[in-house]
Amino acid sequence: MTQKELSSEEQKRIDAINLYLDGEKPSDICKQIQRSRKWFYKWKRRFQIEKDEWYKGRSKKPKVIANKTKPDLESKIVTIRKELMSGEKEGYEYSCVGVLAIQHKFSELNYSENQIPKASVIKRVIRENKLRVRKKKRYKRIKSKQRYRKIFPTKINELYYFDFKGPLYLRGDNKPIYGACLKDAISQEVVVDITTTKSMDYVLSFFIELFKKRDIPKYLQMDNATSFIGNWRHKRFASRFIRFLLHIGVEPIFVAPRKPWMNGGIEEFVKLFSEKFWVKKEFGSEEDVKKESKKFENNHNKLQKWKLRNKNLQRIQSKKLNKKFHFNPKSHEVTASKIHFIREVKNNGKIRVFNEEIMIGKGYSNERIWVTIDVIEQTLRAFHKAKRADKFKEVKTMKYKIKNL
Q1: What is the pLDDT of residues 53-68, one digit of tens each?
Q2: Of 131, 147, 28, 45, whose CA–CA distance to 80 is shortest?
Q3: Cβ atoms 100, 84 nearer than 8 A
Q4: pLDDT tens across 339-376, in order?
Q5: Which terminus of the chain is more solvent-facing, meaning fewer CB atoms within 10 Å of its CB: N or C?
Q6: Is residue 55 part of a domain?
Q7: pTM greater than 0.70
Q8: Could you give the CA distance from residue 180 to residue 200 in angstroms, rounded to a whole number?
């Protein structure tokens, strides 16, 4: 080996041993080479034991790799990842492609829990086979403690979120398309319906047909769209949709205006609807969108059910609408009495509920308030929870009558 082929570090090792062989003391050699005594004795032992090319560094890679992934399992991970990414195989359309989605597919292929590869193994295989997906840059999410919220569901079918995605347009068509998205807060199960309108008539018909098939929740959370809350003109008037919900025993929850993140449970899925469904294919017609959306819904629900397979989740008592149910807004009985609002107090100390400003107090400016209107007791109660408080403080109580109830 010529001098030019040696690295600078290898040359230092050789120089140190040559000085030692010339009779230099180890302490003097270390000062001259500018290395530690530990370093010197390591290469001295290597020189004495190996002789040939003793100065060469050794690979730190272990000679025996524990729990090395079997080639057939690694190949299967790669295959599933590619099939999920392409979405061309039946049952793989519009799917997520991450670790949990891959593990779920192993489960569907009848692999036992012990046979399903661990997350660390899947991540390594994805990295080594250059199958990473470039994630879109996201805004940093700050987790809210939601101290303004009084209702936290614990059971399946206790709380549903609802929202629309859209308007969306087919190529060459000016008619808007919307995705009506419903999500269970606990099971994460979703329902997706494709519509060309966001009208209250549609919303009513959607929920009437839905609750004939699946359980009625205790709470339904949504934003302040006119499709839900009604017009912005008349004070203290409940929309047909609110009256319908109260009639079937559902308490509506309206998040603060222009605060979509408060309805994050459904906003997250609406974003998924856009990224994993709408942009994946150029749909030919509204019927095509409806047909394909059911594949997206089915794949999502199967994955969520698999994620929760080991959790012992309870359900609220089952209740559905009669198949012949028809809602008459002019003649109905109220079985749920409460309507809830999350509102942010303005600088003038007021909040706005049912097109009416209500004074809370300037001391609560920019704070979030939980408001409950009881239509039977005809009261409005507002609650606030301070940053370090354990309980809500009632900050407002007043007589409050909904005029059309």
Answers
A1: 888 887 766 655 555 5
A2: 131
A3: no
A4: 999 999 999 999 999 999 999 999 999 999 999 999 99
A5: N
A6: no
A7: yes
A8: 12
